[in-house]
Amino acid sequence: MKFDHQPADILERLSALREADAPTHGGRVLSYVYDSGLAELDELAASAIRAVQPVNGLDPTTFTSVAVMEREVLGFARDLLGGDEDVVGTVTTGGTESCLLAVKTARDVWRGSGSSARTGTPRLLAPVTVHAAFQKAVHYFGLELDLVPVGPGGDVAASDLIARMGDDVALVVVSAPSYAHAAMDPVVEVAAAAAERGIACHVDACIGGWVLPFWEDVEPWNFEVPGVTSISADLHKFGYSPKGASVILQRGRDRQRTQYFATTQWPGYPIVNPTILGSKSAGPLAAAWAIIHALGTNGLAELSQSCARSTRSLRDVIGGIEGLRVVGNPVGPLLAIATDESVAPERRVDAHHWADQVREHGFLLQLQPSLVQSDGSVLPATTHLTITPVTANVIDELSAALVAAADEVRGVAPISAEALLATLPAEALAALGNPDAAPLDSATAAGLLGALGLGAATEGLPERMAPLLALIAAMPAPLTERLLIELLARLIEPEA
Ligand SMILES: *Cc1c(COP(=O)(O)O)cnc(C)c1O
């Protein structure tokens, strides 16, 4: 066969493209990537992926290696998360899929239970800090979303959740911990109250599941807690697997069977699976399987202890920076940092200016917008850090960067949403006056993005993110969401 392009040329182009990516290794990006710092683990994962490259993970009866690997990963996860033999589960492609399946299962159990099958719209109850994957689940599966306001530290009062429990609640979700603030939700109280009322309780341990078992001073949150009916835990976070692997564990075989979809009613092969995808790669499963076998609980514990040391040290460093503060009582290797408004304005460090400035020093932190809760209270804008084992290798340089960046932007006023809005062109302001953005067509949305200076999305994100985050906070959410859809959609449109 004569190829259009030679493999070597194609790969050369790919490596050039990869050069432009944020660095996935070395501890310079403190979100999205979970680097064990162990090159041999990456090699092992790559070899495992290669070994199953042609396998179709759809059918574990045809490709029996898939069944063996999945069984072993689930067994490991079940032991780690305090489950007994009544806990069963599935390996999924990621946290979002695990969360979607928890919601789908709970919805179907709710519908099917009771003396007469329930009708109407079931409700999903959770603190407002619950991961956005649950908003997506509710959107996909037709539930009503009931988000309960949290305190300034991202902490929810169990009584606020319990007060809203009712017959129409199909699922209450708590996090161990939450992504945005690393807040540990009151799992024991909420699960007990849910169990009393026959309501399912999911613990979203997507980020904590593979690290909290080795963390000190953590309130009970796993299957040892009565009333917990399911747990999600991402292998591709603190299980150090390449992207595409998570587990959803369910208490009770009958509950878990509801997760499955099966049909023989078409002229093709019977479809029977517990996940959202059909044909799928077995690569992430094989990589995750190989990595947990290599690390075992001892290896995971050692990596977690490294994360804990780095987290403690960064907490001290940031706690010592005048003008910034650590939000709430974070549990696990993540921190949310906000502006310390208890000091005079000229001594404050705006959390978003700080993040942009830290980037100048070679580290990428994640900006999180402020949020107005349903009771009118406001959760402040924060900057997020996820700490991984590799953080230890750069801890001194990182700490110095965090301190220096704060010194460089101390006293710089936060970007004023009002001032920013005043600079917008007339057409943008007109759209803002009409927050019902649904009818916005693609061309109009693109025009607005251009007017906001975000037209050339193929150039990547702007150097400084603080103005963008201020804009996101200032504009009506439906309009922002519509514009972001346009931005992302145009990013991958073939060139004209
Ligand atoms: C990351 C995360 C998710 C979603 O996981 P993805 O793997 O990104 O789909 C859900 N919940 C929490 C708490 C998370 O940290």
Description of the structure:
By secondary structure, this protein is an alpha/beta fold. Among the domains are: 47-291, 3-Layer(aba) Sandwich (Aspartate Aminotransferase, domain 2), CATH 3.40.640.10; 417-491, no CATH class. The chain has 16 helices and 15 strands. The chain has helices spanning 7-19, 39-51, 64-80, 95-112, 133-141, 158-162, 187-196, 253-257, 283-319, 351-360, 395-409, 417-422, 426-432, 442-451, 466-474, 477-491, and strands at 87-92, 123-127, 144-148, 169-175, 200-204, 230-233, 246-251, 261-263, 271-273, 324-326, 334-339, 366-368, 371-372, 378-379, 382-386. Strands 1-7-6-5-4-2-3 form a seven-stranded mixed β-sheet, sandwiched between helices. A hairpin with a 5-residue loop joins strand 13 (371-372) and strand 14. Helix 2 (39-51) runs antiparallel to helix 9, helix 9 (283-319) crosses helix 11 and helix 14 (442-451) packs across helix 16. The longest helix is centred in the middle third of the chain and has 37 residues, at 283-319. The chain binds pyridoxal-5'-phosphate (PLP). Pyridoxal-5'-phosphate binds at residues 94-96, 99, 131, 133, 175, 179, 204, 206-207, 234, 246.
Which strand order does the major sheet show? 1-7-6-5-4-2-3
Low-confidence stretches: none
**Alpha-carbon distance between the two ends:** 30 Å
Supply the CATH superfamily name of the domain at 47-291: Type I PLP-dependent aspartate aminotransferase-like (Major domain)
Shape: globular
Largest sheet: 7 strands, mixed
* Secondary structure tally, helices: 16
Name the hetero compounds present. pyridoxal-5'-phosphate
Q: Classify the helix fraction into a percent range.
A: 40-55%
CATH architecture of the domain at 47-291: 3-Layer(aba) Sandwich
Could you tell me the strand content as a percent range? Answer: 5-15%
**Structural class from helices and strands?**
alpha/beta
Give me the Rg, rounded: 23 Å
CATH topology (fold) name of the domain at 47-291:
Aspartate Aminotransferase, domain 2
Query: Which class of the domain at 47-291 in CATH terms?
Result: Alpha Beta
Strand count: 15
Mean pLDDT: 94
